[in-house]
# Entry
Amino acid sequence: MTTVLQHVVRRSILRPFAKSFSSGSPLVDVQVNDKTGVAIVKMGRAPVNGLNTELLGALNDTFDSLEKNKATGMILSSSIPNIYSAGLDISEMYNGTPENLTKFWNTLQSMWINLYSTPLPTVALINGNAPAGGCLLAMSCEYRVMVGSKFVIGLNETQLGLFAPKWFQDTMVSIIGPRQTELALTSGKLFSAQEALKIGLIDELVASEEEALASSDKFFGLFKRIPGYARGQTKNFVRAEVLDWLLKNREHDTKVFLNSIQLPHVQKGLGLYLQSLKKK
Ligand SMILES: CCCCCCCC/C=C\CC(=O)SCCNC(=O)CCNC(=O)[C@H](O)C(C)(C)COP(=O)(O)OP(=O)(O)OC[C@H]1O[C@@H](n2cnc3c(N)ncnc32)[C@H](O)[C@@H]1OP(=O)(O)O
# Structure
């Protein structure tokens, strides 16, 4: 078993310019570039970065720490080949107790509020499939670069017999508009990389992670001469409406989740979907 120290030493040997930064969780790896202060945050929960309470909590803590430690920007990516995130961990929603479901949902809400409202410039480096909750993570960043053309991204909840909550939907509306969001969400569409690029769901499609990192640098470079306070306030105003809805309606949103997810036909559908994934 690799100790934390061995892990840190190995990382610093592999990447001499990156400062190790402990996320406090084995599920999230963080490397901060010494020169630029930009942090690369990589989710690493095998097999598919399913967003369970633990990973969501670890991401939340990481976002907090990066702000406190004055990172200058964040790239949110994955260390699992071909997977950005498979979205919410369905096992957390299937047969969960009301207590666990509430904790799970509240952790998701907190993580999203933190990510969506961080004053740090954020880039999603989408190096794998990004359905549902994975798409939400990417959409909550300010700039999206997908690596390779074989991946899909979108909010496919209706295909599972679920619906994307209002704040998931509003986040998508803010990027691709109400018409395309309605079409995509009602049909549970997963966009190919090319389709996502065409519709503006991703900003760039590149061939390699190196190119994606260069695109990210270019994006962060836009703010070199912009005072952080002015940038942060502007981001706040642009995002206020979507954010405020959840801030004001957290309890209601939790109730809707709890009531809907525990419906027998919804649970049945989730069970069948899980089985179909396992049978593959
Ligand atoms: C009506 C109530 C509404 C209330 C509001 C609800 C709000 C819900 C909001 C968001 C919902 C979600 O995010 S649900 C998750 C949706 N995600 C998906 O549909 C993606 C499902 N997964 C895949 O399509 C594929 O796994 C993949 C393309 C991401 C990767 O494919 P790959 O071939 O590499 O891997 P496998 O399919 O073999 O999977 C490996 C392993 O992981 C398990 N798995 C996959 N996805 C999930 C998941 N989301 N949650 C839990 N487990 C998952 C899969 O079963 C395999 O398990 P085994 O190794 O045990 O076989």
User: Anything to note?
Assistant: Residues 47-48, 50, 83, 86-91, 129, 131-133, 156-157, 160, 162-165, 257, 260-261, 266, 277-278, 280 surround L4P3G6V5 (CB under 6 Å). The two ends are 31 Å apart (CA to CA).
